[in-house]
Design a protein that fits this description.
0% strand, elongated, 3 helices, mainly alpha
Length: 118
């Protein structure tokens, strides 16, 4: 079997003839039939190898009974909060302080009271 990536003289002649057909169908623009060689080469390649790309490939992920991919459960772990108000915990502030100044003021206040006995 011939290598489909190598152009034989017969294939080159078919490509040139198809390029001329495409060029004529476009109204014979000034670029000439050489500008249509790439498109003609693709079309001839499709004609010569009509079954190309038809080899079935197994899915890298398992498929369910309905043909949909079944993802592993561990993919959903540790994704965090997806956003939105799903429950009352979603509305709470996750960061303990609003600004650095608030944090500094809070820490100063706790240090002052840390050494005192109640």
């Amino acid at each position: 079997m011939d290598n489909p990536l190598e152009d034989s003289p017969q294939t080159a002649a078919r490509i040139l003839a198809r390029a001329k057909e495409l060029w004529a169908a476009d109204g014979k623009p000034a670029c000439g039939p050489d500008a249509y060689k790439a498109q003609a080469s693709e079309l001839i390649g499709m004609e010569l190898n009509p079954d190309a790309g038809q080899i079935p490939v197994e899915s890298p992920v398992p498929l369910g009974p309905d043909g949909q991919p079944v993802e592993e459960a561990w993919l959903e772990q540790n994704l965090g909060n997806s956003g939105g108000s799903m429950n009352e915990l979603d509305d709470k502030q996750e960061v303990p302080f609003a600004t650095r100044q608030d944090e500094e003021n809070f820490l100063k206040g706790t240090q002052d009271t840390a050494g005192k006995d109640p």
